[in-house]
Amino acid sequence: MGDNIILWDADSRAKLLPFTFTRPIGTIRVGILTIAEKYARYFDGKINFLAKDFSPEHIDEFNLLVRANALPNAALAEAINNLKHGEVLKHDDIFIAARVKKDELKLIQETGNLSSHKTIHFSGARFLNHIWDIFSMNEQEIFHDFELLTRERKSQPIHPSNYIKGSQIIFIEEGATVENVSLNATAGPIYIGKHAEVMEGAMIRGPFGLGDHATVKMGAKIYGGTTIGPHCKVGGEISNSVFFGYSNKGHDGFIGNAVIGEWCNIGADSNNSNLKNNYEDVKVWSYEKQGFVKTGLQFCGLFMGDHSKCGINTMFNTGTVVGVSANIFGGGFPRNYITSFSWGGASGFITYNLDKAIDTADRVMARRSLKLSKRDKEIFESVFEETKPYRNF
């Protein structure tokens, strides 16, 4: 039996809101895989989560506690695996990992430190510290995950109807349908997941990852640095964006330099701006700082939390942050920070009733033969209460 691995949000949850309202950091998708799925490829053990509203399913006498927003690679995994009890791995003064006893878990949660442990230094660690890091680091992580997923494996044959460049770094999983499409992997790998479908006329440039059971619709134009997570359906134009899973952008319209959570729906002909007219760096709303902060990026688009939706022809300004279960519609540009459980658009917002939001989520999930669980409803209720102060309508 391997290590009991606990991915700990530590002090990073607020940095990655609104996505961490509804999930531990370890289940954020960046690259083809989630952070937890990456760690599972390096360690022979069960992955647990320690976060607000999420407790480990299992705690052993000794556990491997790992900062959840640290992106693993072979060097980091080796350094973590070599840790002994009484040692803590750090990047500068930032905790990365430690082998801890049950009674030490509470101590490190309260203090963020294990002062009695010997510090082992590790340089070169990469962290998700901002929501825009998800798309900014996505291209590099696709390269990393492609290697993890395809090493010593053989792709399904590529159908001869396709236009192909760079076939040696195109990998198609079992059951996928990819015919009469353009796949250009000269700038990076292309990965097509199990039972996924790329419909005819689609044009895809790598680096690109398509999750299991996901669909790219006819004539879609997808640029590099993009990940479409499991069970998503996308069309139109997409560039350097991450869709976590179960979300739809089924029609024309542009999404770029964006992160879209789960169970979102982008209405037909909706677009986000990813570049300001004056070419200045983009600012976005920070839950951690309780205000707008500089990203240092010239290209920065849309961030949409789980279960949020927008109507047809919605226009999002650069750096727009949308919370959980918001419903946006109407003409004009809505504000560039839209809090959770908002209903409206450029003309103003009202509160989206919690019961109605849960009912809608239940119906949306039922279309995919899934059911909103009691636990899901508890998370809805928790997020609704936590975000009340932001709804000053």
Bin the strand percentage.
Answer: 25-35%
**Biggest sheet overview:** 9 strands, parallel
What distance separates the N and C termini?
Answer: 53 Å
Briefly note the CATH topology name of the largest domain: UDP N-Acetylglucosamine Acyltransferase, domain 1
Q: Give the strand order, joined by hyphens, for the main sheet.
A: 10-13-16-19-22-25-30-33-35
CATH homologous superfamily classification of the largest domain: Hexapeptide repeat proteins
Shape: globular
CATH class of the largest domain: Mainly Beta
Name the poorly predicted regions.
none
Number of helical segments? Answer: 7
Q: In total, how many beta strands? A: 37
* Helical percentage: 10-25%
Helix-strand category: alpha/beta
CATH architecture of the largest domain: 3 Solenoid
Q: What is Rg?
A: 21 Å
Summed up, the domain count is 2
Report the average pLDDT across residues: 95
